[in-house]
Amino acid sequence: MMKPRLIAAAEIDRLETWAKYTADMCHSCISSCCTLPVEVRLNDLIRLELVDEFERSEPPKNIAKRLQKDGIVERFNQKSGIFTLTRMSNNDCLFLDRKTRLCTVYDKRPDTCRHHPKVGPRPGYCAYKPK
């Protein structure tokens, strides 16, 4: 049985469907990386101003419950401390502008996004999909 595809251009288990990353790809892409699940940590949520600094002492599980209720977090892995942000119905990141395909929180974006594609499902490769 095939695993579900992350996006139309790339399958997680088939490296040949991913493109070796080069810096010039971002200028001619339709923000394919912004359709992948975004995993964040508490520091990212504070940077995004979704969680206040004083909440750092709260149990992460309680923070996750609040953010799930607000529709910001899809799930929380208590063991790893990783929150997965909710995506829009078309799988876009909550913070991706639908018209411009640009990040609306770029200066505050999570570390996962800052370090893509060095980190992610295929380090060094991109789910590149040309415009």
Could you describe the 3D structure shown?
The protein has 131 residues and is α+β, with helices and mostly antiparallel strands. The protein has 3 helices and 5 strands; from the N terminus they run E-E-H-H-E-E-H-E. It folds into 2 domains: 18-38 and 95-131, no CATH class; 39-86, no CATH class. The protein is 15% helix and 11% strand. Strands 2-4-3 form a 3-stranded antiparallel sheet. Strands 1-5 form a two-stranded antiparallel ribbon.
Short structural summary:
It comes from Ectopseudomonas guguanensis. By secondary structure, the chain is an alpha+beta fold. It contains three helices and five strands; from the N terminus they run ββααββαβ.
* Rg of Cα set: 15 Å
- Please give the count of helices: 3
Task: Report the mean per-residue pLDDT as an integer.
Answer: 87
Portion in strands: 5-15%
Terminal CA distance reads 31 Å
**Which structural class do the helices and strands define?**
alpha+beta
How many β strands by DSSP? 5
What would you call the shape?
globular
Oligomer: single chain
Major sheet size, sense and barrel closure: 3 strands, antiparallel
In sequence order, what are the helices and strands, one letter per element?
A: EEHHEEHE
Helix content: 10-25%
Number of separate structural domains: 2
Q: Uncertain regions: pLDDT < 50 for 5+ in a row?
A: 1-7
Jot down its keywords.
single chain; 2 domains; three-stranded antiparallel beta sheet; 3 helices; 15% helix; disordered N terminus
Helix and strand arrangement:
Elements: E1 19-20, E2 39-40, H1 42-47, H2 60-69, E3 73-77, E4 82-85, H3 111-114, E5 125-126
Antiparallel strand pairs: 1-5, 2-4, 3-4
